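Lecture 7, part B: from sequences to assemblies.

Below are the input chains for today's worked example.
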Amino acid sequence: MTEPRWLDEGERAAWIAFLTATNLVNRKLEQQLKDDAGLSHTQYEVLVQLNAAADGALRMTELADRLVTSKSGLTYQITQLERAGLVSRRSCPSDVRGVFAEITERGREVLRFAAPGHVEAVRNALIDVLTPEQLTHLAEGLGEVTRRLRTEQRCGAQTATQGGTATQAASGAGAGRP
Amino acid sequence: MTEPRWLDEGERAAWIAFLTATNLVNRKLEQQLKDDAGLSHTQYEVLVQLNAAADGALRMTELADRLVTSKSGLTYQITQLERAGLVSRRSCPSDVRGVFAEITERGREVLRFAAPGHVEAVRNALIDVLTPEQLTHLAEGLGEVTRRLRTEQRCGAQTATQGGTATQAASGAGAGRP
DNA sequence: GTCGCTTGGTTCAAATTGGAACGAAGCCAG
DNA sequence: CTGGCTTCGTTCCAATTTGAACCAAGCGAC
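Predicted structure of the full complex, as structure tokens:
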């Protein structure tokens, strides 16, 4: 690697847009959720995932994976949510080590309460800002990025080359009807 | 607002892709920079901005604004960087209250050292994953999002409607040649 | 001039985060 | 079955991050 392939004008523009836009959007949502529902975005996403799950419950690791967060971080958040009565822990029958995080009725209520404002915010910050085509393009591009990083993630750390074929896409919503 | 406008299939897909992709990318970069250069992404961006600035210096507020971070957060990071000798504080001649953060020679060296690996990572995580068209679309879409949120930000909190016309776009790079 | 309001940065406390270390369990080959 | 390796969550600790409170200094109107 003599001289790295620096970003050209367009690439740089894309990268800058990515950085600032994501920061701004996250900031916006964080604020909205905190103000209107007293939840952090992470907590909201936990509720969304659990609410959408089969029995309103998911294993800790699975959940951490979906949220793209660390295991310890999740442990912390689940504890908080449990303390608030929105989620409860349940042990796994088939695996003593396992722990299920399960959304409570109160958790579902809070989610139902918070959802409208959140969707509204998501629309204002991202969805409604773009034309349908732009949105499609965005979904395709970022979807591809996700797939790429996910496979790379699963296939252990091979020296920075690319992974293989596709993986399944995302699952639960995020701003969908609760 | 009777029933909120929930996201349809495509919108949901876009939103999910946005959430996961951004998390994954950030995670990736954070890790790479920490491992290879001992810098957090925030710190790296500080150096980038200062390095690209006119005199290698920027006012605290201006910098916080560009990084889309809180003032207190920046104060913290600048203190860290100063401690590490990569940045130094300089008072502003025209405004006693003002403080300039200025990149040091050592700061520039560290940046030069870290840049190649960072660009490489940015390419692997985002740029090279997409086709040129996808990249263009992405830049346009997210650029629009940025503009929107920036203006909304500047024009005080008017009840969630949209802002006016365009603002100037971003400035310093992020993964450009240092 | 000087009162009142906005700005620029820092300080402070509280909430999160992530990685490393751990203990308890699964799991598989020999 | 038993040693050796992986997996599951939690605990612990250090690093960040953010908003609120604060002090000092500009700034404009009176």
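Note for the exam: Residues 157-172 of chain A have pLDDT under 50 and may be disordered. Keep this in mind when comparing with the next example.
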